[in-house]
Design goal:
heterodimer; A: 133 residues; mainly alpha; Protocatechuate 4,5-dioxygenase, Chain A; 0% strand; flat; B: 280 residues; alpha/beta; Protocatechuate 4,5-dioxygenase, Chain B; two-stranded antiparallel sheet; globular
Chain lengths: 133, 280
């Protein structure tokens, strides 16, 4: 058998991080199709008019639809989503990328913006769950 | 004979594009970011390159859904700025160079790189933000551009070493092109940043500055960086830095650093920028 540089399980040892894999990409295929549809102005208008009806046009899971309605980005990532697709949704809402990203940290937009201005989240203590460093 | 005369590394943060387009470049938040790119705009006026091979990643604008190419080369005559959900950036159409792109495609596949060739490609902020930073506000881009889109989103991305090898093969392919073109290669994306989950907002200046330091003459260390190390140390989106290694490898063994800039933050991201000159 071929040897690998590291076990892929190691990727799960990074705190607060979900690695976007081929399987997740497949799991979120229809969610992402919805996100990509928001690149058309007419679709953005239709979505804004009746979010639920627009979502029902896509073969997404009920959980994925609910997470879109809730703008729950952590849950969307849990359900296979990737941020580069998901920002099409936050862009449609007129959110900055910083607001969308910050919403996943449990901080308010102001707290998150202040952390970034002060140099961002430090790496110390955020490298490894097992190594606690 | 075509020659690669310079390599440029640069972040490609979308918020930089928005600040640029909305005329906020002198706002206190953005001023230091844009000042970091004043030098290179003058440099480009003197250099006047014909073509840029622009390594970037598509952010789910043209790819990543139905097809997920590891390396995709743009072969079209022109590439339109993409609408990423707020309307397309008000920047000029990006003009390609199908003849040089066709040459690169042939040479690189013969050199065992199984490229995807894109005959239609809309380009997003990953490509157009670096163009704005290098050339400012213009009616038409002063260069032709060959986009080289790299998968840095869906795991596994290509390795640092694979990117290095591709860059080295690009150097050979450009050198074998008969027309006397002044070619630059750009590596974009990074530096450290994470756009997802509770660890979002991660910035690692030690990692970033070591990366910039080693880019000139300790590249063996950078080629050995694993995907795991990139994810851990530079954040889930910091792995975009592998694209800087394509650029660096295309410059050959010895280079001189002409300019460098580093700033935190722009939105969620550490901004890095470097200009390198190959030495022969």
């Amino acid at each position: 058998m071929r040897t690998r540089l590291y076990s892929l399980d190691e990727l799960n040892d990074i705190p607060g991080t979900t690695v976007f894999t081929a399987m997740r990409s497949r799991q979120a295929y229809h969610l992402h199709k919805f996100c990509m549809s928001l690149m058309e102005p007419a679709n953005r208008d239709e979505f804004r008019l009746d979010e639920r009806a627009y979502l029902n046009k896509f073969r997404m899971s009920d959980e994925q639809k609910q997470a879109v309605l809730d703008r729950d980005f952590n849950q969307l990532i849990e359900l296979g989503g990737n941020i580069y697709f998901l920002v099409k949704l936050s862009n449609t809402d007129g959110w900055s990328a910083q607001r969308a990203v910050g919403s996943m940290t449990g901080m308010t937009p102001d707290e998150y913006a202040a952390m970034m201005r002060a140099g961002g989240r430090p790496i110390k203590g955020n490298r490894s769950i097992r190594g606690k460093n | 004979m075509a020659r690669i005369t310079a390599g440029i590394g640069s972040s490609h943060v979308p918020a930089i594009g928005a600040a640029f387009d909305l005329g906020k470049t002198r706002d206190p938040y953005w001023k230091p970011v844009f000042e970091g790119f004043e030098w290179v705009k003058e440099f480009q006026k003197r250099e006047d390159p014909d073509v840029v091979i622009l390594c970037y990643n598509d952010h789910a604008s043209a790819m990543m859904l139905d097809v997920v190419p590891t390396f995709a080369l743009g072969c079209a005559e022109e590439f339109a700025p993409a609408d990423e959900g707020w309307g397309a950036r008000p920047v000029p159409m990006v003009m390609g160079d199908p003849v040089l792109a066709g040459h690169l495609a042939e040479q690189l596949v013969i050199d065992n790189f199984d490229l995807t060739l894109m005959n239609h490609l809309n380009v997003d902020h990953g490509l157009t933000v670096p163009l704005s930073l290098m050339f400012g506000k213009v009616d038409a881009w002063p260069v032709r551009v060959i986009p080289l889109a790299v998968n840095v989103t869906q795991f596994p991305t290509p390795s640092a070493e694979r990117c290095w090898q591709l860059g080295a093969a690009i150097a050979d392919a450009v050198q074998s092109y008969p027309a006397g073109l002044n070619v630059q290669i750009w590596g974009t994306g990074g530096m450290s940043h994470q756009l997802q989950g509770p660890r979002a907002g991660l910035i690692n200046p030690e990692f970033d500055n070591a990366f910039l330091d080693k880019l000139t003459n300790q590249t063996d260390d950078l080629r050995k960086l694993s995907r795991l190390e990139f994810l851990r140390e530079s954040g889930s989106e910091g792995i975009e830095l592998i694209m800087w290694l394509i650029m660096r490898a295309a410059l050959g063994d010895k280079v001189e650093e002409l300019h460098r800039f580093y700033h935190v933050p722009a939105s969620n991201t550490a901004v890095g920028h470097i200009v390198l000159r190959p030495l022969r």
